[in-house]
Amino acid sequence: FFMGLDLQPDDPDVVAKLPLHGPNQWPSAMPGFRAPMEAYFNAVFALGHDLLRACALALELDERFFVPHYEKPIPFVRIMHYPAAPGPRPENQFGNPPHTDYGCLTLLAQDTIGGLAVKKRGGGWIDAPSIPGTLIINIGDMLMRWTNDKWVSTLHRVINNPEKSRYSMP
Known about the structure:
Elements: E1 2-4, H1 12-15, H2 34-58, E2 76-78, E3 80-82, E4 96-99, E5 105-109, E6 116-119, E7 125-127, E8 135-139, H3 141-146, E9 156-158, E10 166-168
Antiparallel strand pairs: 1-2, 3-10, 4-9, 5-8, 6-7, 6-9
């Protein structure tokens, strides 16, 4: 499932058919799904704005430095399913192969199953600890560019748990 800003059909960017611009499409078979998803989206969207203010301050900039770049952002929440992967895992088999996120910040709610691994700068991988009730925040390629590579986007991957499936909502 993929959701973003819920733009109306007459929005100029929707009319122009820009990618990732439009109304969200909700599954009709799940009438109780929309309200909690919109609440979650709004909460992480607000948190993202707070984090950008903190990033600006950490960079010794005015806390509103990033605000003009977010007049009409393209935030999104995805729900991804990682099925259990029993048996020996080949080295090149991933739930999601090594990559960096192209956006600014990625917020990821943690669970008890885990599967996220982060590339260490000196080489090798470290598993992100599964701490329920916490968020992992990854720097994306856009923030790396905006900081002139002072902050580096997080190379990460997902390894499916051999015993349990999981859902992830970055």
